[in-house]
Design goal:
The complex is a heterotrimer. Chain A has a 6-stranded mixed beta sheet. A 6-stranded mixed beta sheet of chain A has the order 8-7-12-9-10-11. A 3-stranded antiparallel beta sheet of chain A has the order 16-17-18. In chain A, strand 4 and strand 5 form a beta hairpin. Chain A is about 35% helix and about 10% strand. Among the domains of chain A are: about 200 residues, Aldehyde Ferredoxin Oxidoreductase,  A, domain 1 (4-Layer Sandwich), CATH 3.60.9.10; about 210 residues, Aldehyde Ferredoxin Oxidoreductase Protein, subunit A, domain 3, CATH 1.10.599. Chain A is an alpha+beta fold. Chain B is built from 9 helices and 6 strands. In chain B, strand 2 and strand 3 form a beta hairpin. The N and C termini of chain B lie far apart (about 55 Å). By secondary structure, chain C is α+β, with helices and mostly antiparallel strands. Chain C has a domain of about 80 residues. Chain C has 9 helices and 10 strands. The mean pLDDT of chain C is about 90. The chains are: A alpha+beta, B mainly alpha, C alpha+beta. The interface between A and C is large, with 55 and 57 residues. Strand 13 of chain A pairs antiparallel with strand 3 of chain C, so a sheet runs across the interface.
Chain lengths: ~700, ~200, ~210
């Protein structure tokens, strides 16, 4: 078999057994997210509580995972959301080496069911599957856990573990692998509820591919002609001699004179890495300076990242003075928001050697603590919530903590810049007996718990920044091409995580050039000038659908949606035209089946229709428009001095947003009134059984 | 028997110049110099070339060769050499290595007129992308202006008829930038800058 | 002397010269800036001992630890080129085992050691194509020999009995036994890992090129 391994591993923690089954019946759902979601539909009835033993965790890779295709290291973990309204299907997406080790151990998916009566971890080495005692690991931080399991098993083993946050059933908890790769979505709590400390993989098998020569040619094509930097930014951040354009916010930050300043043996220049030089691609993303500012250069040891990925977006820094000052090694890596963790709980940073190194130390401290405790920030929501409760001289915090709890915290550390304040807070947040624990359950549950003191303000506030009251954070929403970005946010039961649109708008190419390239794909009017948007149109609905489709495809086959799709290219010889057929070409070369862009789109859309139908079943309402897709009030009320469609705002217009939903629903074959898939739509994608269940439960649109 | 050379290029062969190339050794010396400078991200001014004649070229021969680069019937050896007109000089570069956009930028820098350089960059950014030009762009590669120089530029521009379209603004975090009123309104520029400098870094 | 043998002897001459010069590693050796440039390393890196050079019969192999980012594309490219599949465990160049805790392996004080849980030092283990090869010397069947022309140590698949002596004898355990065929497999200097390393942490420099700058 090519691409897929053909195997599902089922591990039952209740009776401590495991078995191997065929995965073939799920190939219609590609793999990764699609496959994991379908297994969840088949095996976990709607209405199951997230922490019940009947809930499952499905970890899945796809036919493309570990195929050597650039960025093919990712996995999807699916379960029921513990932290958003409806407790519906939620996916966590994680990089690192897990996809590689799990795939070469021989599995397309691992189904974890039941619950153990004492702490365990699962060890998978090819066909050998063991459920091992983890009582000595319970309570350990994620780094210690990885070391302990490595010691008990074999060098090179990949460990996916929870920290104390997951053990203590904190809603906003994650699994971690490597030093800092995180799978969020509250999945840590589900591990914890099953008393599952970790799952570890070691694989020695091959990923078989149908056409290795074609695969190699595709890799060369992507590496030479298509790939840019992180978020597929295709122009450098400063003018460079080979480039026609530059963009200060581009993540193509490598440049002559900018170095991995703390590299062993002296600084390594990141230099120029123009297209056509595949052995320099890894120097393009100088993320430490992008995320932390110029101060980070001298502390940057190197850039790291996920298996199989040439875009090294993990800023690996080492700050020697942190050991003495804060008792942590000061060596950490992360990317994007993960690079901040809870740093901004502290309002002042104390510089040590140079201006700005205090703030950098704060970020490293904050990131290290979150990752070691396995706490997930919900794309910044937890920090926003804590700051919301601390504003106005701790007004709300005083209301929710007991006097004893409040007085036990040394709040002066916050303003004096003592970073251990972050650790103090985390220890309260993960303590089920502390009132602050309630603030780490996700905004939806924070509001439910404290609605009487919060009123309607908190959940809909710009300070919190949710896409909607469902509880997911806005993630490249209306700030990314207005209606288009926000439409990509409303599909999920968490933050959007769709990068297709922001990768385009942030590419660094001039607006007119982007528009020209996109209008060929989606029609006139699909892309507005930045923060100068126009009323909704069908081209935008098509563009939004494309955004979701590619994200789901990447999470299913698997590729990294933080780099793909290759909508644009860095090559001026191509007039910056990317190639959207590459995913289908990879699928053909790898599986030996004949995939086209159209057939792959069809399979992808099946996964989206499935996800939507599952959400309706689990929500118990057909009215997605009102109950699920409703967006936060601040989106219509931000920028009070400006009106919608005025230059300089992405404030949306209420009526126009309803039109946007109409058009978006139409693109997916959903009932315009409710936003629910029609029977015809579900049947078109072979989901007749789900249509029957929806109909039986009165959840089919009229 | 085949030798396994992996994916490495063959070692360069020396001493095998063809006769036609030998006749044009003056041209080759010029090209070699221009290419070396281009590889260092630099265009080369005509004045500089005349001051220090490359290799065996005399002044007349150099001027003759340079004039041919502008000519569509240029000899093939000079085919890769292009030029841009600066305010103070004509600048030459190898267009297989450097884009014309970058060559124009470096010509501005080499003309050493900071006001003109800043204005050209800012007007282009405002019109093309559109975006505000943050100070950090101008303090970095390849401009290397200082923050104080840029504040001086902003002050002098206010007094100069030629730069009345250029405005300096600050984002809410204090980061400074320039934009041109020719392409962006004040409020639009302010919102673009706030998005780039405050919102996006906070929501990466 | 034929053209072939003339080239071969020049190559061997350069190799010997280089080995004489760098017998005890690169530290303290006066390397020309052109040679350092070919190696993609600075004098400081060479002095710090984090650039490993292996004088192979056909090439100088350079492993620059500071540039290795642990992406494991070298492993994937090795097996894709040689076996037509992706099988990092079977790759003839391997970094995975060293990634988390460094090349020296896991210690109790792992935060002070190598790897991503320590100070970020890790590098791919590679076949050194040893002058006096442990693997070939250990083979009871004489299945591992130097390929004519390149000197690369290769395994004759028909002669190999899959006993695993080569794997055990190699101090870095670089040969692997393919479980399905029970035959040994090892690096043949194809260069796929080098051509696909996104940060040029791995390089192979032909002796002809070394000769020009030495």
């Amino acid at each position: 078999m090519y691409g897929w391994t053909g195997n599902l591993l089922r591990v039952n923690l209740t009776d401590r057994t495991s078995s191997i089954e065929s995965s073939e019946k799920y190939f219609d759902y590609i793999g990764g997210k699609g496959m994991a979601n379908r297994i969840m539909y088949d095996e976990v009835p709607a209405g199951t509580e997230p922490t019940a033993p009947e809930n499952k965790i499905v970890i899945a890779v796809g036919p493309n995972t570990a195929s050597s295709a650039p960025t093919s290291g990712r996995i999807t973990l699916s379960t029921l959301s513990p932290f958003t309204k409806f407790n519906a299907i939620v996916d966590a997406h994680m990089g690192g080496d897990t996809g590689l080790q799990m795939k070469t151990a021989g599995y397309d998916a691992v189904i974890i069911e039941g619950e153990a009566d004492a702490p365990v971890y699962i060890y998978v080495e090819d066909d050998k599957v063991e459920i091992r005692d983890a009582s000595a690991l319970w309570g350990k931080l994620t780094g210690e856990t990885t070391a302990a399991i490595t010691k008990e098993t074999t060098p090179g083993v990949n460990v996916v573990s929870i920290g104390p946050a997951g053990e203590n059933l904190v809603n906003l908890s994650c699994v971690m692998t490597g030093i800092a790769h995180c799978g969020g979505g509250g999945i840590g709590k589900i591990f914890g509820s099953k008393k599952l400390k970790a799952i570890a993989f070691h694989g020695t098998k091959a990923v078989e591919v149908a056409d290795p020569k074609k695969l190699k040619a595709l890799n060369d094509y992507v590496m030479n002609d298509l790939i840019g930097s992180n978020n597929n930014h295709v122009v450098p951040s400063v003018p460079q001699s080979w480039s026609e354009y530059d963009a200060p916010r581009s993540r193509w930050t490598g440049q002559p004179g900018l170095t991995w300043g703390a590299a062993e043996g002296g600084p390594i220049d990141t230099g120029e890495s123009p297209p056509g030089q595949p052995t320099r691609v890894g120097f393009r993303c100088m993320k430490s300076v992008f995320d932390h500012g110029p101060i980070a250069e001298k502390y940057t040891v190197k850039m790291t990242g996920c298996a199989m990925c040439p875009i090294r977006c993990y800023a690996s820094v080492n700050i020697p003075f942190m050991k003495e000052r804060y008792g942590i090694s000061g060596s950490h890596a992360n990317t994007c928001l993960g690079n901040r963790g809870m740093a901004n709980l502290v309002t002042n940073f104390v510089d040590v050697e140079d201006e700005g190194d205090g703030a950098l130390a704060g970020r490293i401290y904050g990131a290290t603590m979150n990752d070691e405790y396995g706490l997930w920030d919900n794309y910044g929501e937890m920090l926003a919530t804590l700051n919301y409760f601390m504003k106005d001289d701790y007004k709300l915090m005083k209301q929710i903590l007991t006097e004893e709890e409040f007085n036990a915290i040394d709040w002066s550390k916050r303003e004096s810049g003592d970073l251990t304040f972050i650790k103090d807070m985390i220890e309260c947040l993960i303590d089920p007996n502390h009132s602050m624990y309630n603030l780490a359950q996700g905004a939806y549950y924070v509001d439910e718990k404290y609605h009487d003191i919060l009123g309607d303000d908190y959940l809909h506030s710009q300070a919190l920044g949710l896409w909607g009251p469902l509880g997911g954070k806005r993630h490249h929403g209306n700030e990314s091409n207005a209606q288009v970005g926000l439409l990509t946010n409303i599909i999920y039961n968490r933050d959007g995580m769709c990068h297709t649109i922001v990768n385009v708008t942030g590419s660094g190419l001039p607006y007119e050039l982007q528009k020209h390239l996109l209008e060929d794909l989606f029609g006139e009017g699909c892309l507005d000038r930045p923060q100068a948007y126009t009323p909704m149109n069908e081209a935008k609905a098509k563009f939004a659908k494309f955004g979701i489709m590619r994200q789901v495809l990447h999470d299913s086959m698997t590729l990294c949606n933080w780099v793909w799709p290759m909508t644009f290219s860095p090559r001026r010889e191509r007039n910056y035209q990317g190639d959207l057929s590459v995913e289908a070409q990879y699928m053909s070369a790898i599986t030996g089946q004949d995939w086209t862009e159209e057939s792959l789109d069809f399979a992808t859309e099946r996964c989206i229709q499935l996800h939507r139908a599952m959400t309706i079943l689990q929500a118990g309402t057909v009215d997605m428009r009102k109950e699920h897709d409703a967006v936060s009030e601040f989106i219509f009320e931000m920028d009070p001095d400006k009106t919608p469609f005025e230059e300089g705002t992405v404030k949306l217009d209420r009526e126009d947003w309803e039109v946007a939903l109409d058009m978006f629903y139409r693109e997916f074959g959903w009932d315009e009134k409710t936003g629910a898939p029609t029977r015809a739509t579900l049947e078109k994608f072979g989901l007749t059984d789900i249509a029957d269940e929806l109909a039986a439960k009165g959840l089919m649109p009229a | 028997m085949t030798m396994n050379h992996g994916n490495l290029p063959e070692a360069p062969h020396s001493g095998e110049l063809n006769p036609a190339a030998q006749e044009n050794s003056g041209a080759q010396e010029l090209i070699k110099l221009l290419r070396a400078n281009t590889e260092k991200s630099k265009v080369t001014g005509k004045k500089e070339l005349l001051k220090k004649l490359p290799g065996s070229l005399d002044r007349a021969a150099l001027l003759d060769l340079l004039s041919k680069t502008a000519n569509k019937q240029a000899p093939p050896e000079l085919g890769d050499i292009s030029h841009v007109e600066g305010q103070k000089d004509t600048y030459y570069y190898d267009q297989t290595i450097m884009t014309v956009q970058y060559a124009r930028l470096d010509a501005l820098i080499q003309d050493k007129d900071i006001m003109r350089t800043v204005a050209a960059v800012v007007r282009s950014d405002s019109k093309l992308y559109p975006r505000v030009t943050p100070f950090k762009k101008l303090t970095g590669m390849p401009f290397w202006c200082t923050e104080d120089e840029l504040l001086g530029v902003a002050a002098r521009m206010k007094l100069d008829e030629a730069y009345q379209d250029i405005r300096m603004i600050s984002a809410s975090n204090g980061v400074r930038g320039f934009f041109s009123l020719e392409s962006l309104s004040e409020t639009y520029a302010q919102s673009l800058f706030e998005m780039e400098e405050v919102f996006i870094p906070d929501n990466p | 002397m034929s053209e072939f043998t003339r080239k071969l002897s020049q190559k061997e001459y350069t190799r010997r010269q280089f080995m004489k010069l760098t017998g005890k590693g690169l530290a303290g050796v006066a390397l020309s800036s052109s040679l350092l440039q070919l190696m993609g390393a600075t004098m400081a890196q060479a002095e710090a001992g984090q650039v490993s050079v292996y004088a192979q019969p056909d090439y100088l192999l350079v492993v620059n630890r500071a540039k290795c980012t642990g992406c494991q594309r070298c492993e994937a490219n090795c097996t894709l080129a040689n076996d037509g599949n992706i099988r990092p465990y079977m790759a003839r160049v391997r970094v995975n085992n060293s990634l988390n805790f460094g090349n020296a392996g896991l210690t109790d004080d792992f935060e002070s050691a190598g790897g991503v849980f320590g100070d970020w030092t890790f590098e791919p283990d590679t076949c050194k194509q040893c002058k006096d090869p442990w693997c070939a010397n250990a083979c009871p069947m004489g299945a591992i020999s130097a390929e004519e022309g390149t000197g690369t140590r290769v395994v004759d698949q028909d002669t190999c009995i899959g006993c695993g002596a080569c794997v055990q004898a190699c101090p870095w355990h670089m040969p692997r036994l393919v479980p399905e065929t029970r035959k040994s497999t090892k690096c043949i200097n194809c260069g796929a890992c080098v051509a696909g390393c996104p940060t040029s942490a791995l390089r192979m420099i032909a002796w002809e090129d070394v000769a020009q700058v030495m």
